[in-house]
Amino acid sequence: MNIRFVNLIKQYRDNKKELDAAFLSVFKKGNFILGEQVELFEREFASYLGTEFGIGVASGTDALILSLKALGINKGDEVIIPANSYPTAFAVAAAGATIKLVDIDEKTYNINTDKIEQAITGKTRVIIPVHLYGLSCDMGPIVKLAKKYRLTIIEDAAQAHGALYDGKKAGTMGEIGCFSFYPTKNLGAFGDAGMIVTKNKKIAEIARELRVYGEKRRYESVRLGVNSRLDELQAAFLRKKLKKLDRYNKKRINIAGNYCRFLKNVPLLRPEFFDNGRHVYHLFVVKTKKREALAHFLGRNGVATEVRYPVPVHLVKSFEYLGYKKGDFPRAEAAALESLALPCYPELTKKEIERICSLVKTFFSM
Ligand SMILES: Cc1ncc(COP(=O)(O)O)c(C=O)c1O
């Protein structure tokens, strides 16, 4: 039995009727960029989250870059991010800001809220909490700190569609929320796509302009923008899939529950979850010092696994210029060496989960 890390072919097969219809409806209309489907999806996704505005863009990375630009972040401004979120770091760098890293919590893999305050300087403007693997950051203390130091929060919710914290959806607790709809995400397109969400009308307006050359109207550019547009096909697919997001998240939660039950007595660190939130298990990540051997063993037996992310930001070659060194963020470094994501997606069957768990148990009994 070969078990993939994700199975988008099966997902297409399960939703073939709706997806084919969405595809045909866009082709029949002949409008492919920023049209009716994008507008509807922006409204529907914002409403799903319980926020006001959605601005569809080309990717989650662009959502972050344009959010920083919409806030007027410039060279010299400092932006705080967790030391383990590889894609977030590239967005901050691309926006021209200075990256300030903070270590993570060893159990949740999210930013360690106790360590944020010491990273704040007179130049800090933004904190980007990243809700990694589907678990919301502990937003209470982050919101308090942001108020105290007058900082803006941009949530990176690229892995947390539908995750909850104290009844609020991830992406709606800061000034801005950024989402990726990369195909493997909990809400995934069939190509690249992303969205900025906010309750702030002014920010929404600026972000909308920034995604198309800074234009208020066609060829009436009022600020330096880029081309980062969401296309109609992806929006049409995403609208169909949004209807199933809660159901799919429930399946992920079920799978995680099964993993936890079957692996109860195995010496692995399993994902943490909180009573006041909803983890949506974008990834089911376990931690062990025998990570490499476990990954090889599973691979040899037909089970695909992945490591997100294998290198913490401060040890990535392109970020050498930040001047950090090995040992600066020990929890992020340990996570990079010891964590392993097991397959976790709605199409995974109970038989497959049992097979994975039985292999993990065999590994630890050898
Ligand atoms: C936490 C996080 N931030 C940002 C991104 C960037 O999103 P995209 O790949 O759509 O540019 C991703 C996805 O890869 C992500 O997982």
Summarize the structure.
By secondary structure, the protein is α/β, with parallel strands linked by helices. It has helices spanning 8-14, 16-29, 36-49, 60-70, 86-94, 139-149, 201-210, 232-242, 245-262, 291-300, 330-338, 350-365, and strands at 53-57, 78-82, 98-102, 124-127, 152-156, 164-165, 168-169, 176-180, 194-198, 215-217, 220-221, 277-278, 284-287, 339-342. The two termini are 21 Å apart.
Give an account of the 3D structure.
The chain has 366 residues and is of the alpha/beta class. The protein folds into 2 domains: 227 residues, Aspartate Aminotransferase, domain 2; 121 residues, Aspartate Aminotransferase, domain 1 (Alpha-Beta Complex). It is 38% helix and 14% strand. The chain contains 12 helices and 14 strands. The strands form 4 sheets. The chain has a 7-stranded mixed β-sheet with strand order 1-9-8-5-4-2-3, sandwiched between helices. Strands 7-6-12 form a 3-stranded antiparallel β-sheet, with no helix packed on it. Helix 6 links the parallel strand 4 and strand 5. The longest helix is centred in the last third of the chain and has 18 residues. The radius of gyration is 20 Å and the shape is globular. 46% of the residues are buried. The structure holds pyridoxal-5'-phosphate. Pyridoxal-5'-phosphate binds next to helix 4 and helix 5.
List keywords for this structure.
366 residues; 2 domains; globular; binds pyridoxal-5'-phosphate; Aspartate Aminotransferase, domain 1; alpha/beta; 12 helices; Aspartate Aminotransferase, domain 2
